[in-house]
Design a protein that fits this description.
mainly alpha
Length: 165
């Protein structure tokens, strides 16, 4: 079996990968944004950005390195920003007797999906190549945007982010 996982070359590549991971911390600003415009809109907006990045990354895969890095940075920020919003929404919407269980379930499902994506992407890349494999991730944000906009229409949404939907 051949190894299908590409690794960054040299010290510069390793530092670039570290920077891409670390820049995701900017995504915590999603909490500030959700307090201003609402948790549902913030989460849906970040998932639109995330899904767009999953599509766009293939188009710049062989293009300028700065464009690939820019999309990867934006993607990292949006993914971190929307994940925290789901956890916050669960704590605000779950019955207070079951908040711990609900958050545990939500995080467990989230981590399981992450593990499946990390496991499945290299396998699929063996068939479609790394340039287009990230399209596999697009359905998640599409479904998430639909779910958050649907939640925004429900009266329960007023219990989130101090009433900001």
């Amino acid at each position: 079996m051949t190894d299908v996982v590409a690794e960054p070359s040299g010290a510069a590549g390793r530092w670039a990968m570290l920077a891409l991971i670390c820049v995701g911390v900017v995504g915590v600003l999603g909490g500030v944004l959700s307090d201003r415009i609402g948790r549902c809109l913030t989460t849906a907006g970040m998932m639109v950005v995330s899904g767009a990045c999953a599509v766009l990354i293939g188009f710049v895969f062989d293009g300028p390195t700065w464009a690939l890095a820019l999309i990867a940075v934006i993607w990292g920020i949006s993914v971190i920003g929307d994940s925290a919003q789901f956890s916050a929404a669960v704590t605000e919407l779950a019955d207070s007797r079951f908040v711990g269980t609900a958050v545990t379930l939500q995080l467990g499902i989230g981590f399981a999906l992450t593990v499946l994506a990390i496991w499945g992407l290299p396998l699929l890349a063996a068939f479609v190549g790394w340039q287009w494999v990230f399209l596999m991730l697009v359905p998640g944000p599409v479904l998430g945007v639909w779910a958050m906009l649907r939640l925004r229409q429900l009266p329960e949404a007023l219990r989130m982010a101090g009433g900001a939907r």
